[in-house]
Amino acid sequence: MPVYEYECEGCSKVFEVQQRIADKPLTVCPECSGTLRKLISMTSFQLKGGGWYTDGYSGPSNGKNSGDTAAEKPAAPPCQGGTGACSHCPAAT
Which of 27, 46, 63, 67 has a C-alpha 20 to 30 A away from that of 37? Predict the structure, then answer.
C-alpha cells in the first residue's frame, strides 16, 4: 500500500499515511483540524549500475540480438587507401 505525505497549512506538521490508491486524499489535519496539502516526496527507488537497462530493455546493444548488425547500421564505404576520401579511416593518415 502506498505511503503519502501530507503537510498541515495550520500547524505545519508533516506526516505520512498509508492509503490505497483509490482512497480520496486527506483534507483535515488530525491534530488541529487545519487544511492539509499532499506533498510530492522523493522516492527511495533508484536505478544504479547495469540492472534492467543494460540487460533487457536498452535496445539492440543489449547483447540479445541475433548478431546481425548489417540491418542496423549502413555499411561503410570502401576505403580509398589514403586519398583523403575517408578522413576518419586509419588508412587515410
Answer: 46
Is the predicted pLDDT of residue 11 greater than 90, yes or no? yes
Region 61-74 average pLDDT? 51
In the numeric block, which cell numbers belong to residue 40?
510530492
Q: In this structure, are residues 6 and 37 in contact, taking their beta carbons and an 8 Å threshold?
A: yes
> Which residues pair with residue 8 across a beta bridge?
36
As a residue count, the chain comes to 93
Which residues make beta-bridge pairs with 14? 7
Confidence of residue 46 (pLDDT cuts 50, 70, 90): confident
What is the C-alpha to C-alpha distance for residues 54 and 72, in angstroms, rounded to an integer? 18
